[in-house]
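User: tokens in, sequence out, please.
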């Protein structure tokens, strides 16, 4: 195992999750859902808490691993979560309730993100989390930046896409989409960005104010 692999393994294994998140993660494994890693969930929680997020929107509900992580850290926040799989969302709703999250703090929307996001109000969210079809990541981030308030943060999972983004020889659709996105953001004066190697890579984008 390489030094980098050991670091990733250590960070994931040293992350202590709440019982609610641990149960949701186990359900994800049983259902074949690729939930965010413990390290990514922990970073999401820190971002949500540090930014004092009140309004959060995520693309990709799963059964609630990421949503629970953010809601439990930003305790006054409201979460809007979009997913095509209604069965998963129903389980997420149960998991939120079991964790003591009031129903009024969670709005679950069933549908394709490409259909739902254009209907959401712009500049309305402190934190936007995207964990969905990587081939559509550029479109989702464009919507995310529109939805984020000035000073808000857009966070994108799988930004290193299975180690393929860093290798220019890898030309599959998803790797190219992430590579293109990262390059475009690096040249923009409207945002400040950083990439964390946690999990499968976590791209963090802050929408700068005027």
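Assistant: Sequence out:
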């Amino acid at each position: 195992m390489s030094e980098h692999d050991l670091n990733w393994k250590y960070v994931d294994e040293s992350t202590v999750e709440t019982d609610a998140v641990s149960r949701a993660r186990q359900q994800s494994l049983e259902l074949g859902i690729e939930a965010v890693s413990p390290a990514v969930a922990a970073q999401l929680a820190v971002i949500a808490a540090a930014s004092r997020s009140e309004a959060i929107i995520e693309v990709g509900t799963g059964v609630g691993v990421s949503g629970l992580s953010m809601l439990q850290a930003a305790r006054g926040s409201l979460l809007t979560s979009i997913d095509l799989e209604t069965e998963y969302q129903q389980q997420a709703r149960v998991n939120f309730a079991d964790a003591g999250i009031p129903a009024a703090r969670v709005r679950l929307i069933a549908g394709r993100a490409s259909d739902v996001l254009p209907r959401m109000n712009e500049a309305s969210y402190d934190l936007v989390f995207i964990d969905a079809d990587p081939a559509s990541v550029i479109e989702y981030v464009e919507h995310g930046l529109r939805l984020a308030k000035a000073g808000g943060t857009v966070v994108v999972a799988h930004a290193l896409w299975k180690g393929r983004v860093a290798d220019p020889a890898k030309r599959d659709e998803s790797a190219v989409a992430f590579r293109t996105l990262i390059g475009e953001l690096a040249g923009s004066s409207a945002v400040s960005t950083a990439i964390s190697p946690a999990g499968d890579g976590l791209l963090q984008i802050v929408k700068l104010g005027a």
